[in-house]
């Protein structure tokens, strides 16, 4: 009895010692039935200590005795215990075989309670296999038996298991209802342990819903009960749950402290499985903090424990976590190898949900490598899995990932459609966190489409949700996104203010990677203002952090930005050095997008030193890479630059230059058209972005003697908003177009608008 009491309090080492003493006595007096039961108890204790091979040995000893004495009920119970050991080991098919044996005996001897218990165990195996409909059916059978025999405790546990299935399916409201039923029963029958577990489950579902404050409150209720009843195991696991909530809130130091508390208890009570989970959770916190070396060390500790205790599922999970660390470090080949190790394990153990997750992770690696078609294929594989198993939350996440791929390919309408699909699912299942992310993604798409008012509105929706759910990390990210919108509008003071808000938050929560990103953004504002010395200082801060945390991708981006600054400071040698470094980083990590940007920078350096041929060669490399990656956006951005280079190479290539320029101007005109009705945005865009391409085209036309067309282009690039306002207000016909086939000369405009007087003077000092 004392051993059972210690076991209930998670004092497993003391329980083990008492059971061993009892076993010695029982062997001496020859009480076979009780000897078998004590072997069972020792097997359960060793399982709690994550010593699964020892657990298996004791359960096999118990099985031999009950078969010898003909105890069919004991035999069925022992098959169930062995099934649980194999379940812990991730050997799901063996677990199922033992549970099937236990079920057959329970039905044979009419043990309805044992039959119900075995249905629960089988449901749990199917749950681990990602076969959620089968899991649901078995748990419903178990629930029906518990209600039939009046087992209120079993009924409550049945509601918990069904809640778990709905949770995994992303049906969070259904999960919540089942957990609340279980909690009500635990309170009714005075089961304090069950009540605590009910609070844990509700905390987890609120976490999945993005309602982090509610999650925190429920986990704190569970913690109080765990401490009250002296259950150290529950106490330790609840610290881990609270740590996960704090991580989602962006409170990384608090997360670290709670995971360390959970780790200390797991070590104290000898719970190796929970110890491994704690190391993994700490690794994930360090990953979020940008402390990648620490993250790697903690995940490796978790991996060692998973291998030691034979937990194949935990081993696969940890390979995935290590893959994520290498992904953050831009060591994409290592990331891919670890994800592939994880994939092999989840396929081996039949974990369909885990298989879908790993395909998504591999898609992320190819995305980071700029291999968007491969990324798309892996995300589509992941999508097929989550749809197959009915995981609505996972389905919404993958739609968001596919939206990101289409965004990077410059296919903004497709990106918009996929992000809207993800948003619809997040709203449907009540996942506020993912809903906020989807609004942010849509805001970024609208920014790139030039629909700045829509971009601003969507980012503000994302911000409202981040503040509502207490997600400080998400709040900081959204301030950064709003800064980008104002940056695109050339409202640099507003951009700077939003970036500074974001910076304050990332520093507060200790996010070094995010801090580096914001320094880069602030550098971009000063760059756009022509304050190159200030830009340089911020870019150097971003570079220092990237090197410190081992962020190779961010390091390469910083080299590119510094290269651009040095061009404007007329330090072409320094610029070339930085772009060369960026090329080296991009090739090392396999980032084709970065490689294209770095070569574009080198083409600008060559152009600055009047090496036009080399400049054009670099630019053609950029176009080649962009075509290979399928990045239409990058190709469009390069048309103007190639046009500029062609102007300086030879008169014979002026036609080619004009073709590139007109394509670039057409893209700009499309963006301006989207600002109709918002004259402030139109003026801002025209003043900051609209003059250079028109001026360059005017020069080309003058050089070829097309002075009337040149005059028309000057008109095209000036007084645009005034002309459009007059057209709207007085119903005047608009004659302004970037299409040269529609040009018919300024004098014809004057002739057709007979009530207007024109005085046109254009002066520019051309040396």
Automatic annotation (TrEMBL):
Gene3D superfamilies: Tetratricopeptide repeat domain
Superkingdom: Eukaryota
Ranges of the TPR repeats in the UniProt entry: 36-69, 76-109, 116-149, 156-189, 196-229, 236-269, 276-309, 316-349, 356-389, 436-469, 476-509, 516-549, 556-589
Keywords: Cytoplasm, Repeat, TPR repeat
Signal peptide range in chain numbering: none
GO terms classed as biological process: establishment of mitotic spindle orientation
InterPro entries recorded: GPSM, TPR-like_helical_dom_sf, TPR_rpt
Primary localization: cytoplasm
Compartment(s) of residence: Cytoplasm
GO MF term list: G-protein alpha-subunit binding; GDP-dissociation inhibitor activity
One Gene Ontology term, aspect cellular component: cell cortex
Keyword Transport: no
Protein name: Tetratricopeptide repeat protein 28
Organism: Pocillopora meandrina
């Amino acid at each position: 009895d004392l051993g059972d009491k210690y076991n209930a309090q998670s004092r497993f080492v003391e329980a083990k010692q008492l059971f061993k003493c009892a076993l010695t006595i029982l062997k001496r007096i020859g009480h076979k039935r009780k000897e078998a039961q004590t072997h069972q108890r020792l097997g359960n204790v060793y399982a709690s200590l994550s010593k699964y091979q020892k657990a298996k040995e004791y359960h096999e000893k118990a099985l031999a005795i009950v078969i010898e004495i003909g105890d069919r009920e004991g035999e069925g119970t022992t098959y169930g215990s062995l099934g649980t050991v194999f379940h812990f080991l991730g050997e799901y098919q063996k677990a199922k075989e033992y549970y099937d044996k236990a079920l057959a005996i329970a039905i044979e001897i009419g043990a309805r309670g044992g039959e119900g218990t075995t249905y629960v165990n089988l449901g749990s195996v199917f749950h681990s296999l990602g076969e959620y409909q089968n899991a649901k059916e078995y748990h419903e059978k178990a629930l029906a038996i518990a209600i039939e025999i009046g087992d209120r405790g079993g009924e409550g546990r049945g509601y918990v298991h069904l809640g778990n299935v709905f949770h995994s399916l992303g049906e969070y409201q259904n999960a919540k209802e089942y957990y609340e039923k279980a909690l009500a029963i635990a309170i009714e029958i005075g089961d304090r342990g069950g009540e605590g577990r009910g609070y844990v489950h509700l905390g987890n579902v609120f976490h999945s819903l993005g309602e982090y404050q509610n999650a925190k409150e429920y986990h704190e209720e569970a913690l109080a009960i765990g401490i009250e009843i002296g259950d150290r195991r529950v106490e330790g696991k609840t610290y881990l749950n609270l740590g996960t909530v704090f991580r989602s809130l962006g409170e990384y130091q608090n997360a670290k402290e709670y995971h360390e508390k959970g780790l200390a208890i797991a070590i104290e009570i000898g719970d190796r499985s929970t110890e491994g989970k704690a190391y993994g959770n700490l690794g994930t916190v360090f990953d979020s903090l940008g402390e990648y070396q620490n993250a790697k060390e903690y995940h490796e500790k978790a991996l060692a424990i998973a291998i030691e205790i034979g937990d194949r599922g935990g081993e696969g999970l940890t390979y995935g976590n290590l893959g994520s660390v290498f992904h953050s470090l831009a060591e994409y080949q290592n990331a891919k190898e670890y994800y592939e190790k994880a994939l092999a394990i989840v396929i081996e153990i039949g974990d369909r949900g885990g298989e879908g997750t790993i395909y998504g992770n591999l898609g992320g690696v190819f995305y980071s490598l700029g291999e968007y078609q491969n990324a798309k294929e892996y995300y589509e594989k992941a999508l097929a899995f989550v749809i197959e198993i009915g995981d609505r939350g996972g389905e919404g996440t993958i739609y968001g990932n596919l939206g990101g791929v289409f965004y990077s390919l410059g296919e903004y309408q497709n990106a918009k459609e996929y992000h809207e699909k993800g948003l619809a699912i997040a709203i449907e299942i009540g996942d506020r966190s993912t809903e906020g992310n989807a609004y942010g993604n849509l805001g970024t798409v609208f920014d790139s489409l030039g629909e700045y008012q829509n971009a601003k509105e969507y980012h503000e929706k994302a911000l409202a949700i981040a503040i509502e759910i207490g997600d400080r990390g998400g709040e900081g990210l959204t301030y950064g996104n709003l800064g980008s919108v104002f940056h695109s509008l050339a409202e640099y003071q507003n951009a700077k203010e939003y970036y500074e808000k974001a910076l304050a938050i990332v520093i507060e929560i200790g996010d070094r990677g995010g801090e580096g990103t914001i320094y880069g953004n602030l550098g971009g504002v000063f760059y756009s203002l022509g304050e190159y010395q200030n830009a340089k200082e911020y870019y150097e801060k971003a570079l220092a952090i990237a090197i410190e945390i081992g962020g190779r991708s961010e390091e390469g981006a910083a080299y590119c930005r510094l290269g651009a600054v040095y061009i404007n400071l007329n330090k072409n040698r320094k610029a070339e050095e930085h772009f060369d470094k960026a090329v080296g980083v991009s090739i090392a990590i396999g980032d084709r997008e970065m490689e294209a940007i770095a070569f574009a920078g080198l083409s600008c350096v060559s152009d600055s030193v009047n090496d036009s041929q080399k400049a054009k060669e670099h630019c053609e490399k950029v176009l080649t890479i962009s075509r290979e990656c399928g990045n239409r956006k990058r190709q469009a951005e390069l048309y103007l630059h190639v046009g500029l280079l062609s102007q300086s190479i030879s008169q014979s290539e002026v036609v080619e230059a004009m073709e590139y320029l007109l394509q670039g101007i057409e893209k700009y005109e499309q963006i301006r058209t989207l600002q109709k009705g918002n004259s402030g945005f139109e003026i801002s865009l025209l003043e900051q972005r609209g003059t250079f391409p028109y001026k360059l085209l005017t020069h080309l036309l003058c050089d070829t003697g097309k002075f009337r067309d040149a005059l028309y282009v000057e008109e095209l690039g000036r007084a645009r908003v005034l002309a459009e306002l007059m057209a709207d207000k007085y119903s005047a016909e608009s004659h302004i177009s970037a299409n040269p086939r529609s040009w018919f000369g300024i004098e014809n405009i004057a002739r057709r608008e007979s009530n207007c007087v024109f005085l046109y003077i254009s002066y520019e000092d051309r040396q």
